[in-house]
Amino acid sequence: KGSVWLLHRDGMRYSKKRLLDGLDRPHGVSVGPDGRIYVGVVGGLIRFNADSPRIEFVIGGNSGVSALSGDGRHPLVSFVFDRDGQLFVNVGSASDNCDPNDLRPDPQQPCAETTGAAPRGVIRRYAMRWPEGAVNGWSNHAYGLRNSMALAIHPASNRLLQGENARDAIHRRIPGMADDEALPHDELNMIEAGQHYGWPYCYDNGRPSPEYPAKIGRA
Questions:
Q1: Which of 32, 111, 180, 187 is deepest in the core (most CB within 10 A)?
Q2: By the 8 A CB rule, do 158 and 83 touch?
Q3: Torsion of CA 92, 94, 99, 100, to 10 degrees
């Protein structure tokens, strides 16, 4: 746990070499436009050369770029580079459905963790400068996404695709409703800049969440 390994195929078997350890819940991993290895860790993004694994922070740490949120239910960092070298990063929600400490939110108010300059439940877009791999700045690219554990770029259109982890425990709010692998459904979304995808106000295809029976828009 907390390590990154290099697997080398030799016929029908793999040999393995540990490159890094002592990391805080590494999750996403990708080869960047500069050929270096990028790894999401709680609070940020690191990179290194496979033949000389010395950690350099790109987001968080000593990078000079503000760290990602590292608390709450969804601190894991997934990310993807598009074909132009721009970086998209998941910022997962702190709660299940805007219910910190299992308390119902006020249905007349926007969900507090989704407001402000650095909201949760979003995908951020980091403008990158190459070949340095430096962050020029970031913006909130899309909203209402509880936890974007899967991010990908369509190879032909360069469109951002997202796999959405839907909410849990809806049966606590709607007695008699099943809470199994199917309800609410997880989603595959084609992401458009500036759009809101529903969390925590609705689920599935625009069905109002029980916490927000009269769905409100993003504040």
A1: 111
A2: yes
A3: 180
Is residue 184 within 8 A of residue 171, CB to CB? The reply is no
- The pTM of the full predicted model, rounded to 2 decimals, is 0.93
Q: How far is CA 42 from CA 26, 39, 67, 118, 121, in A?
A: 7, 10, 9, 16, 15
Is the alpha carbon torsion for 7, 32, 125, 118 positive or negative? positive
pLDDT tops 90 at residue 180: no
| Distances 66 to 33, 41, 97, 126, 175 between C-alpha atoms, Å | 22, 14, 25, 12, 42
* Euclidean distance between CA atoms 204 and 9, whole angstroms: 42
What are 149-160's pLDDT values in tens digits? 999 999 999 999
Phi, psi of 177 (to 5 degrees): -80, 135
> Which of 136, 49, 37, 23 lies closest to 79, judged by CA?
37
